Amino acid sequence: MAGTYSQLYIQVVFAVKYRENVLMKPWRNEVFKYMTGIIENKGHKSIIVNGVEDHVHLFIGLKPSMSISDLIRDVKNNTSNFINEKKFVKGKFSWQEGYGAFSYSHSHIDNVYQYILNQEEHHRTKTFKEEYVDFLTKFNIEHDEKYLFEWI
After folding, report:
1. Which of 24, 30, 74, 77 is 20 to 30 Å from 41 by CA-CA measure?
2. Domains contained in the chain, CATH given
3. Can you list the pairs that 135-141 forms with residues at least 24 positions away whose Cβ atoms lie under 8 Å?
4. What is the pLDDT of residues 136-151, one digit of tens each?
5. How confident is the model over 51-81, as pLDDT tens digits?
């Protein structure tokens, strides 16, 4: 839309269903590149996409022409289909319902980028659950831990 200007930086975090450790290193980057393509084809800027075996972080320069929920729905649906078509996992792959979305100012871009880039190192000392609850607490988001994750 002409005359509309924005600068919205959002980190989105979501997990594999039941937080299973199935995003394996040999093909994980292919999935992250696929996610980047979806984000950019929807008109947003993909700053970095990274994660570990059980979850993903997206750092996006979001355009206000599309809601975060619609974008993440599309990313999750399309990547689930991609992973299943490629048969990267036994059985059916799917993402857990929901996600966390956290906003940042321009001055935080490098710190958030470095944090997401170093996920493997970061998760040597902290579980995904600990990380996610820390985000919710840091951003003052009320939550009940018993509803955060789906369990088998």
Report:
1. 24
2. 8-147 (3.30.70.1290)
3. 135/13, 135/100, 135/102, 136/100, 139/102, 141/100
4. 999 999 988 777 776 6
5. 999 999 999 999 998 999 999 999 999 999 9
